[in-house]
Amino acid sequence: MSWIKKDRPKIKTSSTEIKDVPENLWISCPKCGEMVHHKDFKKFQNSCPKCGYHMMLTPVERFDILFDDSKYKALPHPEVKEDPLKFTDLKKYSDRLAQQRAKTGEKDVIKSAIGKLNGQEAVISVFDFRFMAGSMGVATGEALVQAMKLAVSKKVPFVVLTASGGARMQESVLSLMQMVRTTVGVNMLDEAKLPYIVVFTDPTYGGVPASFAMVGDIHIAEKGARIGFAGRRVIEETNREKLPKEFQTAEFLKEKGMVDIVIDRQDMKSTLSNVMSLLLKAKK
Asked: What is the pLDDT of residues 238-278, one digit of tens each?
């Protein structure tokens, strides 16, 4: 039959158009499920414009947001003995460190920098939860103390943004000692009459809130951040009772007097700037 051989117009497909669409154009909010365009997601600093849920930021992303014109000087990471106990569980601790460094591109949990925030010079340290759940080890403690010393020498405020699962078990008692060391660093800031501001981000647990993070001049928390020592599940299993839904949230702790200010991430820079100015005047 001749009509079978007859040339017919080809149907155009949209395959080319699909290939031209960038991957991850839309991001699903883990809390409300809203699909957020990546440009809007970035505009709201990695938070959902519908429900306000705050997703994690890397230290570099934090610095870019907080420091004027994203200009700052990163502090060198301290050199410490990396595996003092030669610890091994299912894997060597040294291998775990190498794996985390390859995954995050960071040396350890803490990253510190000095720069200007609305014209006021400050030293800022940021925890990176991606690196072994933000666990505090010897390198973390040393990095914090060095950053605090720099703030004292420069006579500028010190700000730390926390995100941690607690002390690093692979360093045992040496990790727990950092709770004391970092608190000594806080005393140095206090003696120098310099503002010390703690910003709790989600989540902050264990030895961090049990030490330096709960002795700040002002405690600020991002909206919805979970803050505590032991986790909710551990407490419920130990006490054998159901805890309130809002338990250990930033809002709950503000109500109980442990957090001073709860804010949206978009207000972080202006809030820090105002608090630093007030504390500098008060400490003169």
From this structure: 988 898 889 999 999 999 999 999 999 999 999 999 999 99
Q: Return d(Cα 53, Cα 123) in angstroms, integer.
A: 27
Residues 45-87 have pLDDT tens digits of 888 888 888 888 999 999 999 999 999 999 999 989 889 899 9
Give one DSSP letter per residue of the chain, joined into a string.
-HHHHS--PPPP-SHHHHHHSPTT-EEE-TTT--EEEHHHHHHTTSB-TTT-PBPP--HHHHHHHHSGGG-EEEPPPPP--S-TT--BSSSBHHHHHHHHHHHHS-SSSEEEEEEEETTEEEEEEEE-TTTGGG-B-HHHHHHHHHHHHHHHHHT--EEEEEEE--B-GGGHHHHHHHHHHHHHHHHHHHHTT--EEEEEEEEE-TTTTTTGGGS-SEEEEETT-BB-SS-HHHHHHHHTSPPPTTTTBHHHHHHTTS-SEEE-GGGHHHHHHHHHHHHHHHT-
